[in-house]
Amino acid sequence: MLELNNVTISYTNQPAVCNFHLTLGQGEICSIVGESGSGKTTVVRAILGLLSGGGQVTEGEIRFEGKPLLSNTKEEWRKLRGTDISMIFQDSGAMTNQTRTIGKQFVEYIRTHERISRKDAWDKGVYMLERMCLPNGDNIMKSYPFQLSGGMRQRVGIAMSMTFRPKLLLADEPTSALDVTTQAQIVRQMMELRNEYKTSMLVVTHNLGVAAYMSDQIVVMKNGKIVDAGSRDDILYRSESEYTRNLLNAVPSLGGVRYV
Amino acid sequence: MFDEKELILEAKHVTRRFPAPNHRLLTACNDINLKLYKGKTLGLVGESGCGKSTFMRFLVSLDTPSEGEILFHGKDITKMKGEELRLNRQKIQMVFQDPSGSFNPKMKIRDIICEPLMNFGRIKKSEKDQAARKYLELVDLPGEFADRYPHHMSGGQRQRIAIARAIVLEPEIVVMDEATCALDVSVQKTIIELIVRLQKEKDIAIGFITHDLGLIQSFAHQIAVMYLGNLVEVLPAERLEGAVHPYTKALISAVFDIHMNFSRKIERIESEPPSPLDVPEGCPFQNRCEHCMEICRRVRPALKELAPEHKVACHIYE
Ligand SMILES: Nc1ncnc2c1ncn2[C@@H]1O[C@H](COP(=O)(O)OP(=O)(O)OP(=O)(O)O)[C@@H](O)[C@H]1O
Ligand SMILES: Nc1ncnc2c1ncn2[C@@H]1O[C@H](COP(=O)(O)OP(=O)(O)OP(=O)(O)O)[C@@H](O)[C@H]1O
Ligand SMILES: [Mg+2]
Ligand SMILES: [Mg+2]
Q1: Which residue in A69, A150, B151, B195 is deepest, having the highest Cβ count within 10 Å?
Q2: What is the pLDDT of residue B114?
Q3: Which residues on B lie below 8 Å from A133 (Cβ)?
Q4: Is the CB of B80 within 6 Å of ligand 2?
Q5: Count: domains in chain B
Q6: What is the ipTM of this complex?
């Protein structure tokens, strides 16, 4: 389904990710965890061909359903992005245009991928928002991004990305702006999407509890490299990597260490 | 634990209403009463959209409440203007939820960190480089980052820049809005240890918004739980597991942890939170509460003392 082979990604000739490998089957969920700044977002953006500021894949190949992605033309990307491959960004708030209402942006997004009337696109948007536990979808559609809380904006982003039932969903910190009950709902919804539509997912998260709960495989990154990878149990209970164990020890747990 | 002599900021009956489409009003904060003490941390948790950021923005004078007052050393900051307001701003600083949005993308990190110092004439231009390096190192980033632009950094790195910038003026109060949620847990741990150390050294009062209950319990003194604009429970952090409000309990049970049982099904929360535009009469949590009684649909429970330093707004405990 998705394959990354020996991928190296650089920003203006400085490698940010080195020799990255990943194989993701249909309906599989993989989490990438690890150091901040280790290149997790870079990997996800590279898959979508959306590297920022001078970023480039300098080595290796990325295949989606057997097809190499790196040689895609603009037109091929346009067809793929937002439909077969969809993405939830680290902060959807900054991604959306602040000066236009959610509804305008949502309707436009739907209409670039589907021949459908404005009215139907609007209703579809409202339906998706309500599925993401945003009550009063109509009011949200009429709001500007700055009028919504961070968590609400994030759910709008998730609702958009799920509209076309993507085959592959890339999610960069999808729940880190959400309260724990909403997070639990979103995690549940993502897993239902996987079960119903066999969507494969690559999820970047700092929440090791969420990663462990959702994932079939977990990749641990540090400094641009994979330092550890395996099933949940491999990572949680059998890891030989010192970094992984450090990370696990730093997870704040209820009833755990107190500093004051 | 809290000594009234150490009280530095007190929010009294703070309410904020926003105009919403179709001439309606959205109550983002409803009659909030909270106190900040010298050298102590207040953690604010709750549903996304329940008004946490709205409340904290008042403290740094980015917004003013529709009603109520905020007393800083006894003086109402919601009434301050001009030079008095400008000078007061040095003493209360904030780290924003979404740091990428609060930086000027054309400024280098050096200038971003030093801007507050320059604005208040604390350093000379020639001292900028040294100051920037010092604060970068304080938040565990290499000094060379001074020459970078914010969009050339990862999300977590930008977040640390925001923390560095907030502490350069040595404020009395630092408000942090989800300041560590973009960091990996190991860097987060370093930052929390740094914050706790700075707090002890400089007696800083901290207001910390987060969704991570394990995290806030590890370093806060007091935790306030909000739901749909209302405070529903306030209690000492070390007694978080003794929380009694049904919403606080729901929060605690929704935490994902590496020690949890992974085959446990995620609980289906049948009802959704009401829209903040249609907050029902009575208790804001009524439609999701399994203990909902007849009175809960009619009368909004007041925040009442249950035990020393533990307050709850719930009819079960009236
Ligand atoms: N446009 C860019 N130009 C130059 N360097 C960049 C650029 N974007 C990212 N980097 C650098 O590449 C490295 C990886 O960044 P990336 O955003 O992928 O990290 P991340 O693992 O997603 O971190 P976080 O968890 O903090 O979001 C970082 O050191 C960052 O400073
Ligand atoms: N400028 C504004 N105009 C209109 N409504 C607003 C404005 N700012 C916030 N709101 C509304 O006030 C409510 C509270 O928002 P706030 O940002 O304080 O939530 P929050 O508790 O910080 O949530 P999160 O955890 O998701 O960041 C939300 O319903 C939001 O839509
Ligand atoms: Mg990232
Ligand atoms: Mg907020």
Answers
A1: A150
A2: 95
A3: 272-273
A4: no
A5: 1
A6: 0.83
